[in-house]
Amino acid sequence: MSVFDRIVKIYKKLVNAICLAFESIAILSLALMFCAVMIQIVGRYFFRVTPGWTEEIARQLMILFSFIGMAIGVKNKGHIALSVFVDSIGRRPRLVIETCGKTLIVIMGIMMSINMGPFFTILRYNRLPGTGMPVGWRFVFPTAVGILIALIAAYQIYDHFKYGTDEEQKRKQLEDAATQGV
């Protein structure tokens, strides 16, 4: 194994550890969002009074959960893809198209970070009315998720050059799992 391959292996482990941390945050935000909505429902239907913070908290957690879901979708290659045309062409053009797609995802992640980041500094002194939370904090996670998406797509591009198309990679993973399970 070359030095470059070892560096890429460490890079992948680091990115996967960051993804695991973000997935934990997503699970926690989903649970907290559920609790906030339940408090709002109980307050509305049983006590005819709802706390003002529940709607804001649920909205902020939904934003957080959605952006982390985008990164998880890129990592698991679970995003929407129009594969009707790509499936009908040969291996080399498919590899070029998939690599170009991943390159666009890297660019999108970088642009997301560049365009979301300034909102944190611009809006950090504005406050949400129900909770008093700074509005700028809403843009911290999208900025971090943009960086994470770019990092994930970068090692997926490397995998395309090393292991082939997504379909070939999936087939190889299934074969490796089958040989390890025997």
Give a description of the structure:
The longest helix is centred in the first third of the chain and has 45 residues. The protein has one domain. With 182 residues, the chain is mainly alpha-helical. The protein is elongated, with a radius of gyration of 21 Å. Helix 1 runs antiparallel to helix 5 and helix 2 packs parallel to helix 5. It is built from 6 helices and no strands.
What's the helix and strand layout?
Layout: H1 3-47, H2 53-75, H3 84-87, H4 91-122, H5 140-163, H6 166-181
Helix pairs in contact: 1-2, 1-5, 2-5, 4-5
Any descriptors?
182 residues; mainly alpha; 79% helix
Summarize the structure.
The protein has 182 residues and is an all-alpha fold. It has six helices and no strands. Helix content is 79%, strand content 0%.
In terms of DSSP E residues, the strand content is under 5%
Radius of gyration: 21 Å
How far is it from the N-terminal to the C-terminal residue, by CA? 26 Å
Apparent shape: elongated
The structural class is mainly alpha
SSE string, helices as H and strands as E: HHHHHH
Helix content: over 70%
Quaternary state of the chains: single chain
Q: How is the main sheet built? A: none
Total number of distinct structural domains: 1
Q: What is the typical, i.e. mean, pLDDT? A: 88
* Number of distinct beta strands: 0
